[in-house]
Specification:
222 residues; three-stranded mixed sheet; 7 helices; 3 strands
Length: 222
């Protein structure tokens, strides 16, 4: 077995733990209704209206955990469970996506950087592995180096994503509490839900960094 593979093991364990944690948190808090019976769509609309973003539409989108804010079209899309649900998980996730809309409106620098490089990184990440594999098979160091550079750009994108996601969650909690969408005793549950979700981004970055280190070691060894 390639000894560099062992570099990935800690990151793989962390990623497994993070995914299990968010799945567990979602299963738990999607079954706990908020005391005021507010749906995710209503919570998001209240937050948007309170921040002068009433012109941002909220749409229902298919799929589970498919919630996102589309900065290009300025549209918030929520899954059916979040849109119609009145659980702690629903209002927390909806508030998080509203947090991205607020970031966009305020010109939050990390989200501006992420949105600017997203199209380039999408292409780069799709090309990285084919170039790496071709370079290794053909023995072309130049192709391997190019593949590593392209892969590194995807890692950089994940680095930029971290403050965006954590800030959106912090904003979400502040909005949920400040607008009294949730009661004080429900705040802890909302924080646990959003923290668990944020850890998946940390785990993804850890996995990518481990892969990048492994690629560099393989390149230097060969």
């Amino acid at each position: 077995m390639d000894p560099t593979f062992f570099i990935l093991i800690p990151a793989m364990i962390f990623a497994f733990f993070a995914q299990a944690k968010v799945s567990s948190a979602y299963a738990k808090y999607s079954g706990v209704a908020n005391r005021k019976g507010i749906t995710g769509a209503s919570a998001a609309q209240t937050i948007l209206n309170s921040n002068g973003l009433s012109d941002v539409p909220i749409e229902m989108t298919p799929g589970k955990m498919s919630d996102h804010y589309d900065p290009k079209n300025r549209i918030m899309r929520l899954s059916k469970e979040v849109y119609e649900g009145d659980s702690i998980a629903s209002v927390s996730i909806a508030a998080h996506e509203a947090g991205h809309a607020i970031q966009h409106a305020l010109g939050y620098k990390p989200i501006k950087v992420r949105n600017a490089i997203a199209p380039i990184v999408s292409i780069a990440s799709n090309l990285a592995w084919p170039l790496l594999i071709a370079g290794i098979i053909l023995g072309f160091t130049g192709l391997v180096d190019l593949g590593i550079i392209l892969f590194a750009s995807a890692v950089f994108f994940q680095v930029v994503t971290l403050p965006v996601e954590f800030n959106a969650s912090t904003t979400a909690i502040a909005q949920l509490e400040g607008l009294q969408i949730i009661l004080p005793e429900e705040s802890g549950s909302a924080k646990k839900m959003l923290f668990a979700a944020a850890m998946t981004y940390v785990a993804a970055l850890a996995m990518s960094l481990a892969n990048l280190l492994r690629l560099v070691l393989l390149r230097n060894r060969n």
